[in-house]
Design the sequence.
């Protein structure tokens, strides 16, 4: 893995932008139906999950790589569920998303600590993302009436984290 510091992970940057845009859409139009919110979140999470698998493929065998694949699995499962069954997802979306986001937060915290050797100073951003994700997940469950706002914050935070890490870190995808 001979990545140079002059090359950046623009894939993570652009995927992060897409996920952040999904978060902004959800926050700007919180009155959208839960079905539409499920579809928007599903696309954003599916894209993020697929990208996590590409990252895992390149870093497999390193400390913390397993957490990256688990994060990708969570994103993909949730994204597919939202896209395939948006009406069902809308009925249980707050509890379902809350549980998945809590699990994602735990994985992000573990991955941040596990990847600190290869991610430089960005591991702290990943840990902060995990802590805020845990908080959002708990809030989804406790205060479901504010679901759209918490979902938007989570997607925006996930997208910004991916973009910052992509623009700041060497491209591990090479």
Sequence:
């Amino acid at each position: 893995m001979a990545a140079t510091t002059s090359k950046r992970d623009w894939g993570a940057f652009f995927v992060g932008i897409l996920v952040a845009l999904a978060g902004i859409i959800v926050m700007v139009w919180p009155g959208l139906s839960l079905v539409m919110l499920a579809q928007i979140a599903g696309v954003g999470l599916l894209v993020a999950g697929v990208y996590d698998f590409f990252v895992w493929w390149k870093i497999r065998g390193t400390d913390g790589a397993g957490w990256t694949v688990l994060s990708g699995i969570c994103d993909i499962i949730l994204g597919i569920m939202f896209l395939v069954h948006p009406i069902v997802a809308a009925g249980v979306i707050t509890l379902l998303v809350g549980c998945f986001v809590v699990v994602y937060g735990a994985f992000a915290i573990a991955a941040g600590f596990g990847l600190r050797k290869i991610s430089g100073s960005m591991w702290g951003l990943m840990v902060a993302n995990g802590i805020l994700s845990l908080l959002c997940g708990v809030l989804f469950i406790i205060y479901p009436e504010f679901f759209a706002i918490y979902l938007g914050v989570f997607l925006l935070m996930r997208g910004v984290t991916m973009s910052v890490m992509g623009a700041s870190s060497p491209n591990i995808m090479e």
User: Anything to note?
Assistant: Helices lie at 10-28, 34-59, 65-84, 86-114, 123-142, 147-168. The first helix runs from residue 10 to 28. Confidence is low (pLDDT under 50) at residues 1-5. The chain has six helices and no strands.
